[in-house]
Design brief:
The protein is mainly α. It has two domains: 204 residues, no CATH class; 180 residues, no CATH class. The chain contains 18 helices and no strands. The longest helix is centred in the C-terminal third of the chain and has 56 residues. The chain starts with a helix and ends with a helix.
Length: 406
């Protein structure tokens, strides 16, 4: 008991930051999953709701891809820039990313959807603001200001609620996401300085840009894979099955909104740490993750049986055949974020791409072949096998990197 107490005292600040980060993420996700998406589902039939999910998948893939890449590359090289008294590079990367974001979002949405010009403009704005939100939070993370991250989460959630009221009045579903992003951006603009930094170049720009590109490619695969179920299921099984799979996995995928904040705090602390962690600690972390997966998988399945009849009553019966496998695979896939954070810090940046390429090939090969043979349940088994292999490969990359550096 005393040993546990000493650990809590020693790591009190880290534990506190993890809890704050989980609350910040949990509040936003809770509002999205319990209020926003069920409301949009009731406002539309299952096919129209499936199309909304596809559209927002594209917007989130692109926005988070650029934003998280900017955030993480800056965290990765924070100590190097500070120790060498360098100032610059990142504002130019933000400008380039914004231009690319607009081009890619417009192109992709035009290919998959028939949207009006105003709907396109709205969704492009949402994608750009999502990118800026993901990047600007860097300032909170590097300074370990996790109370600010929580405050931003509350502000964003407030924006979602206001947006829902506007959608109820106008029936323009895109506005719920636009209002939330605008409110969050104003808060970040008032509480951070990172977006106002001048556009300057340093002698590290080439190296930083190359590694940003590696990380962006890795994050592109990560974010596409996060929504790949929708992108695969939509052309093969249709929008209704997209909605069914989404409903079946909302609880399991929610585990990522516990694990991702933890991995975010881990990277923040590692970015300030000069010495490497030991392989012994790495092994203990992974054992804890496996225990977490077991407990959360059980809770996710049980919770799904309770929540889905309330949130998605029209889809609930269709989800019953895939609930268990779909939720377990979602939890295992989410759990990879923590060892992947350690790989990001201590391994070569291109190792991220290697992991994602292997996972992508497995996901596509197993997911599509199993889908054609056994339908939606086959797709879920393909995802489960791919997720297990991805975790093992990520673990091995991290273990090898730490073994070589210690």
């Amino acid at each position: 008991m005393m040993h546990v107490r000493n650990i809590i005292i020693k790591y009190k600040k880290i534990i506190n930051d993890v809890v704050l980060n989980i609350f910040a993420s949990g509040i936003m996700v809770g509002i999205l999953q319990i209020l926003v998406y069920p409301f949009l589902n009731k406002l539309n039939n299952s096919d129209a709701f499936g199309e909304i999910l596809i559209t927002m998948a594209v917007v989130n893939i692109i926005g988070v891809l650029f934003g998280s890449s900017l955030n993480n590359i800056r965290l990765k090289y924070h100590n190097e820039y500070i120790s060498n008294k360098l100032n610059g590079d990142f504002s130019l990367l933000v400008l380039i990313s914004t231009i690319l974001n607009i081009i890619v979002t417009l192109t992709w949405l035009n290919v998959i959807s028939e949207l009006t010009i105003w709907e396109l403009i709205t969704l492009v704005l949402v994608s750009v603001l999502t990118m800026l939100r993901a990047y600007m939070i860097f300032e909170y993370r590097v300074n370990l200001h996790y109370k600010k991250i929580l405050q931003n989460g509350l502000v964003y959630s407030f924006g979602l609620v206001i947006g829902l009221v506007i959608v109820y009045i106008t029936s323009v579903w895109q506005l719920v996401f636009l209002v939330a992003e605008v409110v969050s951006f104003v808060f970040l603009l008032l509480t951070t300085k990172v977006i106002r930094e001048p556009i300057l170049l340093t002698n590290r720009f080439k190296n930083t840009s190359i590694n940003f590109l590696y990380l962006a490619l890795s994050n592109a695969l990560t974010n596409i894979l996060m929504y790949l179920d929708r992108l695969i299921l939509y052309p093969i099984l249709g929008a209704h099955q997209v909605a069914v799979f989404f409903a079946a996995t909302i609880v399991g995928k929610a585990s990522s909104f516990v694990l991702n904040p933890i991995s975010g705090v881990v990277l923040s602390y590692l970015s300030r740490r000069k010495e490497n962690i030991s392989t012994k600690i790495y092994l203990k972390v992974n054992i804890l993750i496996m225990l977490f997966c077991l407990i959360v998988s059980i809770l996710a399945v049980l919770s799904s049986f309770l929540l889905l009849p309330l949130l998605y009553s029209d889809l609930y019966k269709d989800t019953l055949g895939i609930l268990i496998v779909a939720n377990i695979s979602a939890v295992i896939n989410a759990s990879t974020s923590i060892p992947q954070t350690i790989v990001l810090k201590y391994s070569k940046t291109y190792h991220q791409i290697s992991i994602q390429i292997i996972y992508t090939v497995l996901y596509l090969a197993l997911g599509i072949s199993f889908l054609h043979n056994w339908g939606l349940i086959g797709f879920c088994y393909g995802l489960l096998i791919s997720s297990l292999i991805k975790y093992f490969i990520t673990f091995m990359f991290g273990y090898k990197s730490l073994s070589n550096s210690n």
